[in-house]
Amino acid sequence: MIDRISGDLGFYQEAVGLRQKRMEVLAANIANADTPNYKARDFDFTSALRDAMAGGSMHLPDTHLTLTSTRHIPAKAVAPDPATLLYRQPLQPSMDGNTVDMDVERVAFADNTAKYQTDLQIISARIKGIMAALQQ
């Protein structure tokens, strides 16, 4: 039963995680709007979610690190990032080389925020439904 609950919520967990990452990328673009030669970044959310949910294609084999000294800190392998950052093509390039278009960034940030909140509401409703089923 736990596997079914995990499978049901797994999609939304990945979606919320990617939305949060996209929010960080868009916020970095907005914060660097006046930085000379800063190149605006973004990623394709749909393909990143598809890659994250594909499972096998994005996972590397387990890495085992050998400690050669007792003073070394044990480490775990880092999972690959399904969201490949791309450079945004500027609609109107600026003289200082900055490619951030504040109108595009604000719209993308607001859209991503609304979808993030929607995903959280869906997760909350699913959990409430599961709790109601368990209580009966």
From TrEMBL:
The keyword Metal-binding does not apply. Keywords: Bacterial flagellum, Cell projection, Cilium, Flagellum. One of its GO terms (biological process) is bacterial-type flagellum-dependent swarming motility. The basal body constitutes a major portion of the flagellar organelle and consists of a number of rings mounted on a central rod. Belongs to the flagella basal body rod proteins family. Structural component of flagellum, the bacterial motility apparatus. Part of the rod structure of flagellar basal body. InterPro entries: Flag_bb_rod_N, Flagellar_basal_body_rod_CS, FlgB. This is Flagellar basal body rod protein FlgB. Its main location: other. GO terms for cellular component: bacterial-type flagellum basal body, rod. It is found in: Bacterial flagellum basal body. It holds the Pfam family Flg_bb_rod. Coiled coil: none annotated. Residues 18-39 form the Flagellar basal body rod protein N-terminal domain. It comes from the Bacteria.
